Queue: 4 jobs
Job 1
Amino acid sequence: MRVLFTGGSGKAGRHAVEYLIEKGHTVLNVDKVALDLPGVENRIADITDAGQMFDVMASYAGFDELEPGTGVPKFDAVVHFAAVPRLLMTSDNECYRVNTIGTYNVIDAAVKFGVKKIIFASSETTYGVCFADGERKPEYLPIDEEHPVIPEDSYAMSKVANEVTARSFQRRSGFDIYGLRINNVIEPHEYAQNFPAYIADPSLRRRNIFAYIDARDLGQMVDRCLKTDGLGFEIFNVSNDDHSVADSTAELIEKFYQDVPVSDMGENETFYANKKAKKLVGFKPAHHWRMYVDG
């Protein structure tokens, strides 16, 4: 597929772009910083500028596309990851402005250019646990896509607003628009770097609901969404199958969630449910931390 990918230079985006390239997709990366990856063309652009988004949506994805002499091809899909990536990087209102206006501009341009597959990054933070003031426990476990989303912070608020925006665009257009509530992204080098500390002190992972998503498996999820048509508007949790700590499900419940209703769960089953992604798009996480951390 011919894919416009916003935010492909970021932590999550660069691994997803690399995965898509390996799967044979053509990717144009739209970001404020170029991605140095063979096979990827870059456009430096600002998602909060509607004109720039409309321009890149009708852009060549490389010099080779000039050769046929038949004009600019249309993108088959848009993957939108560009955003202020977390709280406490900019002012709160700037975080909210960039993320909401940027998402509106990207989806608006895609729909008006007839791009019928749009995938956008939402977040684990929508559930209100990650950036809560103090400890906020889930209302039940495991957290699935039906769990209430009532965050307190500007970043997570922007992601909830973006889901509403996307649903509205899908309602009018009828296109496939899928939102990914991405859990804490782990790059390959971070297993050896960070996980020994998580094993020693599981409480370090409480705000991430003890879950994670390998950056390469996130790329697989994007690819599966690109290949799955006809779902309309859907929201998916994106996580790996296990916890990011050595403690078992029962041990974590005993230490952290004694008063939280819990459904039957496996010995090391993630609290951040990914069953919907597996069922509807065929997501199959291939990486888990025990493959990379000795002992």
Job 2
Amino acid sequence: MSATPADPYVPTRGDASYGVEHYDLDLDYRVSTNRLAGRARLDVVAHEPVRRLRVDLVHLRATKVTVGRTAVKWAQRGPHLTVTLPQALAVGERAEVTVTYSGNPRPVRSSWGEVGWEELDDGVLVASQPTGAPTWFPCNDHPRDKATYRIAFECDSPYAVAVTGTLVEQRVRGSRTRHVFEQRHPMATYLATVHVGQYEQVVLADGPVRQVLVAPVPLRAQVTTELSRQPRMMELFTRLFGPYPFDDYTVVVTADELEIPLEAQGMATFGPNYLSGRRTHERLVAHELAHQWFGNSLTVKAWRDIWLNEGFACYAEWLWSEASGSQTANALASQHWRRLSLLPQDLVLADPGPATMFDDRVYKRGALALHALRAHLGDPTFFEVVATWVAANRYGSVSTADFLDHVDDLDADGDAVPLLDAWLWQTPLPALPRI
């Protein structure tokens, strides 16, 4: 039986015939040679009768595959590892698939640039969105396929290691240090990351949510200044969106400049060019923090729904601006509406297509749609919609249809969904109401 395509935006990734409930990764990395050796156990469950599993793995070579304790037939061609199970799984049946592999990890080319494992001048980062996760571990690479993780990562002792999850064990063995992280909340593959660098860890806030900075020592002063208002952002967002969904929040700042900031589960990554100490990019600090609710706790079922991640995170920027005494959401909405009105009116927000799913119009039009909904419903109902949306789907997967159903359930007049239809499914830019 051939693999079932998982998402039309990324047809070469994912297999919808099965899901992974847990990943157990045991990784050994040599910084000087960029050599990664790993063993990955995937606890899989069949979503349909299946005899062969298509597992995503890029630039790394498998050397052994077992199902349970049984060695099985497998073939690796291009970005896929096809595993033949000893016997077919019926719907709901489970199996443990273990892959031993190694190689020199590197990014994979995609329609959105190079993504995945990336060597820095002195260290590593992983930027997996949307298709880079298979550059460092075998996986079912689809945003809807969320799993828990245990990640053991051993590398040279002078280097600090930050991985998505909570550090539960650390052991020094000669010149090497083994770090073990656990991610107990379901996580999409693209939100798993590793950072290796000459970093120092600093606690920015102990509570109510522990917030940690991981950065090179020479950058500490400028970065802590830039992040000084992040604890207030956390207070605002927990009040508006509900409890912070993970155990803690880590901001990693690389020594290298980066093209864009990156979010991962319970973590954000910035280059020093975005945290200069002058707070010129503070909106991005708010944006990446907001992704912990919108994108990480609530993850899209398919990439066409990406506005649910980026529209909400962009609108969170405007909410922070308003709450901190800077520009109001009204002012920012008017400003961005004018800019969008001058751009081509050919984007369908709820299905932008793979070529434009990260277009800035998705971010801004998504935020404008939420602002229009807020103006229509009024603040009490709008923020009730947002908070209950987050609570009802905590750690789950969501779609545009799910959001519209949720809005409709809380809209007493029943006319909010038609209003959103113009923003989501029509190409002309609707008129913008003011709050």
Job 3
Amino acid sequence: MLYTHATIITVDPSRRIITDGAIRVHGDLIADLGKTEELKRRYADDEEYDLTGRIIIPGLISTHVHTAQTLLRGAADDLELVSWLCERIWVLQGNFTEADGYAAARLSIGEMLKTGTTCFLESMFADRYGFDGLCRAVEESGIRGCLGKIVMDIAKYAQDDAWAMHPGLVEDREMSLLGTVKMWEKWNGKADDRIRVWFGARTPGGVSDNLYKEMTEISRTKGIPITMHCAEVRADRDFFASVSHTPMSYCDSVGLLSPSTVLVHMVHLDDSDIKLLSESGTHVAHCPTSNAKLASGICRVPDLQKAGVNIGLGTDGAPCNNSCDLIQEMKLAAIIHKSISYDPRAVPAESVLEMATINGAKALGLQDRIGSLEIGKKADFVAIDVRGIHSQPWFNPVSAVVYTATGRDVDVVVVDGKMVVKGGELLTMNEKEIIEEAVMRSREVVERAGLTEKVKGRWPQE
């Protein structure tokens, strides 16, 4: 198949952009790319799909997602993190069934595909949500999923005993750590290698030192990567201080710093933390919307970049973002750092597109397969329609994608060589069915949790 007449942002090592470009897909790989005229002459017998007026980018990679939480979109707005988590989100999630988890995963994946995300890192899927269902959803949809199953053995947040998890979410070593290993043995590499299983460790304070050390040892011996929330809010800093550490000195002490680890949020860091991150090759997932909405603070992205730390981009969960649209996340990631630094050159559009593509691929250990458009790499790409009145005119295609487009402009999505979105519509999933199931199950979860009145807005509804 030839995809023709598009502007192609390759994000290859030379960062070349091809005007009136074409991509040839053979099987699951990019077999060729270049000028449309040349590829049409070279492959005259190939079927052609015309993408005039579209910009093609590598498939977007979200390095931090909570797929279960999409069922709770808008159910915990305008709350700070600890009360948001302990009084609302954990209570709701503690009332999930496996069927709810599957419905939520399908809703998340459908939204991600329609808005251009072709690969995601699930951060912390609880046992009660049904990990098999999450894997089935990935398999059926055609997306790539790096799937973190929760690891924990302490049922509270940070150092305060009052911040307790809902009983329905509490897991022990056998269920969480050993359960993840079992799921890794069952699912890792399945769905034509689109599924990878990860450890999804809870935030420090939710995991004992011994369990962290056991997990990091298994990670090294079996090659199971790790993702973990870290230094998100001031309460996290207080926890680290209570054990005589900074965030990264603690992580280093239990073996978490590694090129196979993605640490999420990373808002409250010292200069010494940034140095340790740089030296260890540990990756960071930046989630600006979540951090802003929960008033957690702003990650020191320019400082991390100067230190050579690899930074990916994530949308986090729907209750703290209300969207799985990574294109919208790119815009905020580009803008917010300019605002606080008083420097309009801070974190330019090109850097943000790298975060959402090749940097994300590096964080997931998949940079040789995805993250850029190069011959021999997997055919994962997105065509964004820029013909609309809200997109015209444009001069720089990277600017048009980062500052103007949203996920609603996504026209075509290809993953592993297969078209999964065409004309903005899902091809591998029944969108109407997904929505109806999600709406029904979201209401049931809220009712079981006894939070029907609390999830309503502040203004009266008749």
Job 4
Amino acid sequence: MNPAPDAPTLDSPALAGPALGGPAAPPDALDATGVPDAPAGRAPSMLRTALVLGAFVAVGPLTIDMYLPALPTIATELETTEAAVQLTLTGTLVGLALGQLVIGPLSDALGRRTPLLAGTALHVVSSLLILLAPSIEVLGALRVLQGVGTAAGAVVALAVVRDLYDGRAAATMLSRLFLVMGAAPVLAPTIGGGVLAFTSWRGVFMVLALYGVALLVMGWFLLRETLPPSARRSSGPRATLSTYRGLMRDRVYVGLVLVGGLTMAGLFSYVAGSSFVYQGQFGLDEQEFGLLFGAGAFWLIAATQLNPVVLRRFSPAQVLLTGTLTGLVSGAVLLGLALTGTGGLVGVVAPLWAVLFSTGLALPNAPALALSRHGEAAGAAAAVLGAVQFGIGAIVSPLVGVLGNDAAAMGTVVLVALVLATLVLVTVVRPWQLPDPDGETVAVGH
């Protein structure tokens, strides 16, 4: 990688946008709903912004991961198959994908705050209804609804980042968000395993409902509007379709979306198959699974937090290319060791951790580069990013079960996803041709 110009520091006034929180806005800053816009001219605290947005984003990984230790138990209690239970995970991802396509344009038209709070309320209601689910079919349908509510946090947080930051600053903020997001997968299975020690799998969803209520309180008091009325767009179907058509005409944007989605597909295949691989193939119990799953997520977190440091010397395009290629090599090693049985559990865990580390380098930079191209429609642009990521995840998750729910099946899906991500990156995005989002042209060797 060739070094890029020095990145701005986190405290640079040049990165300042509207603040989240702080003193009340003057009367003339009220939007149409009577909610004050964020005051202009103040540099936001990146830490506070990351924590507030990260708390909302974290509801997605928590919703996906907290019940993973209970998947075998749910299959037994509801008298169904392991593959059917895995489809409830797919349902959540479908809801996340479809919900973002609707909520993203709404956030461009209504502002960020109202869709975020409404989606979070839907998540709370669906979580409570799951407590009464009598069958796998009802559970699956409610998980779709839960995913739609969860989508609000995922898409609105990205749009708010684009409202406030651009270029390296956006990639840095996304890295901070991934710290919070990374803590959720670390804690979720462990929390789920702890809940299962005292109650049934339904208790996991009561915890999710309570977390959603806490988010509603936080959002009401701490989250200010970052999209002023003057910057909002029409929310009609024709205007929404026109916005999406414009996004789809941007070859580089579409390529970056696909790279991000395929990279996430490798991560989702790990999420979908890990409980069966660790517990079924290697005999770990629910608590041991939670601890090992969390230990793996540490490497994802470590890479996302290394990313801002690397961005001081290299461009987002360079880091994206390096992370994707490293993940590809790690995925190949994972599949080779899994197919031959070399190393047992260690032979699976070690290359998986390398895949997670590489993913942590790539993931913040693909959306940062994509969103930098369409700041005028950040909600819709973030919606496409999220919908593709979770839509591909919904397709990928059952594949691990279909292929056998073992380490070889998981490694196969991981490797195929990363091979496709690399092909799209090299043939469609062509990162060596991308301008630096902060204004400099970047030369990446190829």
